[in-house]
Amino acid sequence: MAAPILPGAEPESIDGGPHGALVLHGFTGNCNSMRPIAHALAAAGFAVELPLLPGHGTTVEEMNTTTWRDWSSAAEEALEKLEARVEGKVVVAGLSMGGSLTAWLGTRHPELAGLAFINAAITMPPEMREAVQAMLDAGTEYMDGIGSDIADPDATELAYDKTPLRPLLSLLEAEAETTPGLGAITCPSLIITSRNDHVVPPSNSDDLAAQVRGPVERIWLDRSYHVATLDYDKAEVEKAVVAFARKVTT
Questions:
Q1: Cα angle 37-84-63, degrees, rounded to a multiple of 5
Q2: pLDDT class for 17, splitting at 50, 70, 90?
Q3: What is the enclosing helix (H) or strand (E) of 109?
Q4: How many CA atoms lie within 13 A of 189 on its CB side?
Q5: Which residues on neighbouring strands pair with residue 90, listed in sequence order?
Q6: Which domains does the chain have, with CATH numbers?
Q7: For helices 97-108 and 68-85, what crossing angle results, to 10°?
Q8: What would the pLDDT profile of 33-71 be if each residue is shown by its tens digit?
Q9: Which of 226, 189, 187 is nearest to 206 (CA)?
Q10: Mean pLDDT over residues 112-140, rounded?
Q11: Distance from chain centroid for Cα 159
């Protein structure tokens, strides 16, 4: 990355084992939002990879030069790095776009032991793509930020204050690549959903649960907004992800 990494956004690679966990952050966010999950998994004995996806955690202008292809390639590279350093099984956990990437990896890697989704972006409304394309056609490159959708007034997500539209359109278009393959996911899935999510409609979780073919465990959160990993239910989310990871790797 050309720009310096923001303090608090740094990636982490944590030793452990024999099993591993790949932890993926969301769109315009960075490792800050998923670090509690990564540390909880590490404390449970997992080797952990928490990558910083291209264009994230630096400047929004740098992010505006990246696309889904960059993020998915980085996620797969991190998975391969993790699989090379553990002898056992691997789970993947992702928030928002990190959940999109978790699903994408799940369609490509049948060896994965389990997938944990937290307010995953899976099937966004077609009119959203049309609106973003219209703004780009009108010469607009950025819109207001979508980060820090958190109910707890004392918690803040380290995220960009603007949303770059070209990368957003790339994310929305990637749905056509991921969604048709969801039926190939046969490993267990944990789907955690905030009922009051102002970024990703909770119906995304319903679509995901309906399309994967493996066993599905669902948890609904009533106190948290989109960034549930930093919100009122963060302890419950950490506990659930760790328990799931232990179960599917036993």
A1: 55
A2: confident
A3: none
A4: 32
A5: 20
A6: 12-249 (3.40.50.1820)
A7: 60
A8: 999 999 999 999 999 999 999 999 999 999 999 999 999
A9: 189
A10: 93
A11: 14
